[in-house]
Amino acid sequence: MTVCEVINMKDEYDFSNAVKNPYARKLKQQVTINLESETVNYFKDMSTETGIPYQTLINLYLADCKNKKLKLNMSWG
Questions:
Q1: CA dist list (Å): 9 to 4, 13, 29, 30, 74
Q2: Residue 48 contacts residue 59 (beta carbons within 8 Å)
Q3: Is 25 in a helix, a strand, or coil?
Q4: Does residue 7 have a pLDDT over 80?
Q5: CB-based contacts of 44: which residues, under 8 Å, 6+ apart?
Q6: How far apart are CA 54 and CA 22, in angstroms?
Q7: Is the pLDDT assigned to residue 9 strictly greater than 90?
Q8: Tell me: the pLDDT tens digits for 19-61?
Q9: Which residues neighbour 60 within 8 Å (Cβ) at sequence distance 6 or greater?
Q10: How far apart are CA 7 and CA 1, in angstroms?
Q11: CA dist list (Å): 52 to 46, 49, 67, 72, 73
Q12: pLDDT of residue 4 exceeding 80
């Protein structure tokens, strides 16, 4: 902050007419997840190509799977 910003800040703010954030439902939840290095590197490379942060790309990919109701098809042996 600059000196001018500090001088212009109010001592108190009135939030009596504040409105709840309509996007609060869509806020992101921080999680810890273990991913293979190759998977992370794939998204980091894609990030370099697109200019979109790799964590955003992972979120977009997973959200697309959710929206399309894609299910993993796994079979053993």
A1: 9, 9, 31, 32, 58
A2: no
A3: helix
A4: no
A5: 54
A6: 26
A7: no
A8: 888 887 778 888 999 999 999 999 999 999 999 999 999 999 9
A9: 52
A10: 10
A11: 8, 8, 20, 26, 29
A12: no
